[in-house]
Design a protein that fits this description.
The structure holds 2 protein chains of 2 kinds.
Chain A lengths: L1 H18 L6 H41 L9 H40 L2 H8 L3 H12 L3 H22 L5 H9 L4 H27 L5 H31 L2
Chain B lengths: L1 E10 L2 E11 L4 E6 L5 H8 L7 E6 L2 E2 L5 H8 L2 E4 L11 H12 L4 H14 L15 H13 L5 E5 L7 H18 L2 E5 L3 H7 L2 E6 L2 E6 L3 H4 L3 H7 L3 H15 L1
Parallel strand pairs in B: 3-8, 3-9, 6-7, 7-8
Antiparallel strand pairs in B: 1-2, 1-4, 4-5, 9-10
Helix pairs in contact in B: 3-4, 3-5, 4-5, 5-6, 6-7
Classes of the chains: A mainly alpha, B alpha/beta.
């Protein structure tokens, strides 16, 4: 069991090395990158915006409903919404949702190419299939922090709307909460995490798709396994980065 | 010409290829036949460099594959065209993009030159009104034509086909067989076809290599296969009553 995991981890790092070898012609790569930006980033905008807006709203409502003591200021609703959304919800939980959306898309598309011998066709032609398939995803996901930035903005906006229009707080109080004890490094911390998660989101599902064996059923299984492992690694890396960057 | 000397390939504790030696000449359609599990696919994938044999050599016009540098191997691969069993066309591309892919990747041709060459091979394989269609929108026979067009677009010296007729009706299968034979002769390509199809054996098998249990059990042409008394070959090739009768008729005619 342990040997099997170690073998897989070793294989993953060998794959990463291969991704940067024998680069594909820039003219072709440019088109692939634009296609991946469209598939991975643009296509995710809708779901990220929807989830962020409503979860931000729910965070504000939950906070408001738990502030039963009249001595606790109402601006805490804005403060709690900002902290929850910027520190954890947008970078970490959106990434886990993206492990399901983007991750399963990446695994199933590469896995289907494996099953239908399209990867063999690339190899026979002399194309470095790992560079051709994985590198454009890595570059496209350099835009992932922008997606998370939008999530942060919409999360806080959703909180503000739910708080103000739900009658839980005034707009001035909510904005005061957003500004209270603001530490700019928290934004840096969130984007550092996001960049690392972007790398994980591009590579782990690719690994599971590329090295899968079998037929259509196995493509489905590989997508599930990829989602589980991507989520596990994101959670572990989140813990490590939080410990490293915030607890000093 | 492709020369294979004593190649062996093992998976786990199962030796699939047990010392295969043969050669495939340019301008001829060379067929690899044999029962399922005889090692045909592993042999073909070894020729393509997808599997690396433990022993033996494979040389392409004197260039021994295992002795080539990575750059030389890459260069050699651009001289190879391959038609996969399931066609292996790229789903996200149109027919035209699929065919032009090797040119776009490996040549410095302008988009106009690529278009001209693609149009030429499309006409050569008789693909009509399919340029802008996706592989999923065309029939199996048309997909095979696209695969052949993609394989020959960069003027390969070597063409490999894995079960090119699988899943096709008999009429389309004959058309595809003849197309491969014509292209082989026209461009003097070394063509190697992995097949189960006895019609292909009889129609286009200028050289036939019969594999059994990972070894070459018989070699010869489609003319010689009628006369052979090699039991393994006759058991496999003439397993149907129809082919037994065809053989009988051929032998009787030959005696006259």
């Amino acid at each position: 069991m342990l040997i099997r995991y170690l073998t897989q981890i070793g294989r993953y790092f060998i794959m990463l090395k291969e991704v940067f070898k024998q680069p594909t012609k820039w003219k072709v790569m440019r088109q692939l990158i634009f296609k991946e930006i469209d598939d991975l980033i643009i296509d995710s905008l809708g779901i990220v915006a929807f989830i962020s807006f409503f979860v931000g709203g729910v965070v504000a409502i939950q906070t408001a409903l738990n502030l039963t003591n009249p001595l606790i200021p109402k601006y805490l609703i804005g403060f709690a919404t900002r902290q929850s959304v910027i520190l954890e919800f947008a970078p970490t939980f959106i990434s886990i949702i993206m492990a399901g959306k983007m991750g399963s898309f990446i695994t199933s598309s590469i896995g289907t190419m494996r099953v239908t011998e399209q990867i063999d066709a690339l190899e026979v032609m002399g194309v470095n299939s790992l560079n051709y398939l994985v590198f454009p995803k890595l570059i496209a996901l350099l835009l992932y922090p922008f997606l998370i930035g939008i999530s942060m903005f919409l999360g806080v906006l959703g909180g503000w709307m739910a708080g103000v229009y739900g009658g839980f707080t005034s707009s001035a109080e909510f904005i005061q909460g957003i500004q209270t004890d603001f530490i700019p490094f928290h934004i840096t911390y969130a984007f550092i995490k996001t960049s690392v998660f972007a790398f994980i989101l591009a590579t782990i599902p690719s690994f599971h798709g590329f090295y899968m064996k079998g037929g259509a059923l196995e493509v489905g299984k590989a997508s599930t396994v990829a989602f589980v492992w991507t989520s596990v690694v994101i959670i572990l890396v989140n813990y490590l980065l939080t410990q490293l960057l915030l607890s000093a | 010409m492709i020369e294979v000397k004593n190649i062996e390939k093992t998976f786990g504790d199962q030796k699939v290829l047990k010392g295969i030696s043969t050669s495939f000449e340019a301008g001829k359609t060379n067929l690899i036949i044999g029962q399922s599990g005889s090692g045909k696919t592993v042999f073909l994938k070894s020729l393509l460099g997808i599997h690396t044999p433990e022993t033996g050599t494979i040389s392409f016009d004197g260039r021994i594959y295992s002795e080539l540098s990575n750059d030389e191997k890459r260069a050699l691969r651009t001289e190879i065209g391959m038609v996969f069993q399931g066609s292996a066309l790229f789903d996200s591309m149109t027919v035209e993009e699929n065919i032009g892919f090797p040119l776009k990747m490996f040549t410095k041709k302008t988009p106009q030159e690529i278009k001209e060459r693609v149009d030429f091979v499309i006409a050569r394989v008789n693909l009509i009104d399919a340029n802008d269609k996706k592989p999923s929108e065309i029939s199996g026979g048309m997909q095979k034509r696209v695969a052949i067009a993609r394989a020959i677009v960069n003027k390969p010296k070597y063409l490999f086909c894995d079960e090119p007729n699988s899943g096709l009706d008999p009429k389309t299968a004959i058309v595809i067989d003849n197309l491969i034979k014509e292209i082989t002769e026209e461009y003097n390509i070394t063509t190697v076809i992995n097949t189960h199809d006895m019609n292909s054996v009889m129609e286009i098998g200028e050289k036939i290599v019969f594999l059994k249990n990972g070894l070459v059990a018989w070699e010869g042409s489609n003319r010689e296969i009628f006369k052979t008394d090699n039991e393994a070959v006759t058991d496999f090739v003439y397993s149907s009553e129809l082919f037994k009768k065809v053989r009988q008729m051929y032998l009787e005619e030959d005696q006259k």
